[in-house]
Amino acid sequence: MKWIYRDQSQGQKVLNFMLLTAFLALVVPYLIGVTNGHHTPWLPMISELDKATPEGTLWSAGLSLAGVISIPIWIKLYNKWDGQLRSSNAEPKWFWFNLLFVIMAQVATVSFIWTVNLPYHEYPIPHGVTAALYFYLTLLLGTIAILVVRKIDNYPKDIIKMRLA
Predict the structure, then answer these.
(1) Which keywords has UniProt assigned to this entry (predicted)?
(2) Whole-Å CA distances, 79 to 25, 82, 85, 118
(3) Which of 14, 21, 67, 92 is least crowded, fewest Cβ atoms below 10 Å from its Cβ?
């Protein structure tokens, strides 16, 4: 495993661990649920993965852990962009957008954790509201992130153009 992490910063390692945790928290409960006959093998509803045990426990705990791990990642990204914006002599409004980004990221993370811990079959309205808030904020976060990084000098803007095209 050492060769995987050789050239990565501590933040990248935490991000990789968070992504692996989230991936396993989705795949393992799905496989357990399908083999136990609790879920359809083709296109299951993701909100029903926490309906039965043990997959529901793994799903909620794993995704909650991934959400908690993401909190310092958002803060680290905010601090990184703040320093880059300051060295780029960006307009003050972009500092506010960067702050808005990290606040929205924290609210999205809390919404995500609530979503995975409010079972759809028991609490359909709170689950739906927190899920909608999470997905909406995630889309908005991506937009604000693109706008913020475009104001940073020496940021690889060609990557952003390729993703937008």
Answers:
(1) Membrane, Transmembrane, Transmembrane helix
(2) 29, 5, 10, 32
(3) 92
The closest of 48, 22, 12 to 112, measured between CA atoms, is 22
124/104 Cα distance (integer angstroms): 24
> Each residue of 62-116: pLDDT tens digit?
999 999 999 999 999 999 999 999 998 888 999 999 999 999 999 999 999 999 9
Taking the CB of residue 165, how many other CB atoms lie within 10 A of it?
A: 5
Angle of the 92-117 helix axis to the 124-149 helix axis, nearest 10: 150
Positive or negative, the CA dihedral 28, 107, 151, 87 is negative
Q: Has residue 1 got a pLDDT over 70?
A: no
Q: Can you read off the two tokens belonging to residue 64?
A: 């909650």
- Cβ(81)–Cβ(152) under 8 Å? yes
